[in-house]
Amino acid sequence: MTDTLSPATTGATGRRAPSAGNLLPIIGVVVAAVAVVLPILVDDFAFNYLMSYTVITCILALTMHLLMGLAGVFSLGQAAMFGAGAYAAVVIIGQTGIDGTLGLFLVAAVGAVIGILMGLVTLRTTDLYLALTTLAFGYIVENLVRNSDWLGGPQGITGFDITFAGSYLDEPKLLYWVGLGFLYLLIVIIMSVRRSKVGRALMATRESPIAARSIGIDTRRYKLLAFGVAGAFAAVAGGLYTAYALVVDPSVFGIDLTLSVLAIAIVGGLRSMPGIIVVAIVLTYFRNSAETFGASQYVLLIYGLLIVLTLRFLPQGLGGLLTSPRVLAATRSIRARFHGGTQ
Amino acid sequence: MTVILEARGLTRKFGGLTAVDNADITVDEHALHGLIGPNGAGKTTFVNMITGVDSIDGGTVTFEGKDVTGLRSFHMASLGMARSFQTSQLFEEESVLSNVMAGRHRHIDYGFPHTFFYTPKTSRVERANRERCMALLEQLNLADDAKRLVAELPYGRRRLVEMARAIASEPSLLVLDEPAAGLPGSDVEALGETLVSLSKNGYTVLIIEHNIGLLMSICDGLTVLSEGRVIADGVPSVVRADPQVIEAYIGRSDDA
Question: Which of A102, A318, B48, B75 could form a disulfide with B54 if both were Cys (CB 3.0 to 4.6 A apart)?
């Protein structure tokens, strides 16, 4: 408390703001490149099929990262946009016959509109109440669809073809690549946003809405922007999911989906994109294996356990380890040993 | 002198209690204006109404010649009215630099696609923004803390960061709610010097304080609030001699 206005109190030992090591971007680019050629290297139908599902999960999990991690909006309504995207893809691409190259962007637009609509309705509340109202919004959309005969009612719709550039998207390799394209687009957007004016505005909105408004940030507008972008990509994920599942029924709105993606986002770290992607891959693989062994009824139980353990021991998730001061110090000392102690 | 801020007949009621009753204030451009009054006089409520944080039950606010009565706080801020808060409102888990850079929000004019795709323009504007903020931190002796998290700074420096963030927005009116609260004596003096140098650099500052010693020495004008009403207004030497002020405020204290 003493001597607080003079600069003398600063020391070099203080906890620094998280900064990713300069190795991280290189690793990212290499991993991204490997991910593109992976289906060619491992030319296995079942593997590619699983990979395409993993990419869809990654997209959905990153929309949670954008909404909860960056904008600080605790929304449980992403299933509404995922489901709406699934149905929109069937109607726009499958039934109307618009090719996916344009159709998926129309699906994204539908998701963005529904996302913003959800934001407009629910942003009167905050925190836990927001979580509940967004969840309720999802149920409303689900019930609208369930009771619409032209959308197949409770039985849903089968027998549609999702095409992309003239090819059928039920070919897992193509589905994987298209999904990967959208995933990369989302990653680029999130990374750019984080380093730009919008990212700071979202940060301010998340950390202190009162302060954010005091420097001219319209917090509501930025939250709506996050809802819109997250909605657009969740809808694309839903649209791709229809090509994966070959059937769309009201179960795409299920709480099961919301909870499993929430588990991925929390375990990976709401603020950490790499953490979420890694955990999305691992947990999707785990879930698939569990289904193979007939243990799928325990999957959500284990997800719940993971959430509890993460919140107890790693509140910032696995991704938080990347920026934790102790781990950073450890990696620095290891690298110093290899490079002759430049740091 | 041009008037930058004029509030007329501002009133705010909380249930049966009238927190601010028909209060006026006029702040001249480039002035260092103080709003003083004993605890519970309604100073913060008054300022919350002016800055759009709280709603207004009666009266008008004119800022730079425009009627801004009832505008929300982000709108006020985008017009150039920046403020700090009595209990500091900072972006705790962010660096000092990032806090201050956020303050320049209204001056960063790129939009889509530069926000969604990190373009050369984004990079250029962001670099300029960062340099400007570093220069400001330098001036306020905060440069060494630029990369530290706000959450771990000592109290006095946190207050300074909040002020830096408000200054970064290059406001035409800077409103500071009790910037000296909780600071030890030596820091209060340093704060006074900072405020005077701000005003010399052309800033208009409205300071809220219940400790009037600081304001008496540095302010060009004072408004005294007591029990929600303005009881005196003018240059410090006149306000100091006002019998009502002495009775309501100074008279109860040993040291003015």
Answer: B48
Computed from CA positions of residues B100, B105, B106, B110, in that sequence, does the dihedral angle turn out positive or negative?
positive
Q: What is the pLDDT of residue B11?
A: 94
* Residue pair A176/A48 in contact by the 8 Å Cβ criterion: yes
Q: What 3-state DSSP class applies to B146? A: coil
* B67 beta partners: B62
pLDDT, average across residues B193-222: 88
- pTM of the shown model: 0.88
Give the CA diameter of chain A: 74
pLDDT at B249: 67
State the smallest CA–CA distance between residue A31 and chain B in angstroms: 21
Please list every residue in chain A whose beta carbon sits closer than 8 Å to the beta carbon of residue B53: 210, 213-214
| B residues 18-37 closer than 8 Å to A (CB) | none
**Which is nearest to A234 in space by CA: A134, A133, A127?**
A134
Concatenating the DSSP letter of every residue in B152-210 gives GS-HHHHHHHHHHHHHHT--SEEEEESTTTT--HHHHHHHHHHHHHHHHTT--EEEEES
Q: What is the ipTM of this complex?
A: 0.89
Place of tokens 């691409």: A93
Contact A15 B190 (CB under 8 A): no
Burial A297-312 (b: 16+ CB within 10 A, else e): eebeeebeebbeebee
- Please state which of the ranges A83-87, A152-156, A262-266, A338-342 shows the lowest mean pLDDT: A338-342
Q: What is the pLDDT of residues A76-133, one digit of tens each?
A: 999 999 999 999 999 999 999 899 999 999 999 999 999 999 999 999 998 899 999 9
Q: Is the pLDDT of residue A21 over 60?
A: no
Give the phi and the psi of residue A47 in degrees, each rounded to 5: -65, -45
Name which of A7, A15, A218 is nearest B149 (Cβ-Cβ): A15
**Helix or strand run (H / E) with residue B21:** strand B17-28
H or E element in which residue B27 lies? strand B17-28
Asked if B191's CB is within 8 angstroms of A192's CB, the reply is no
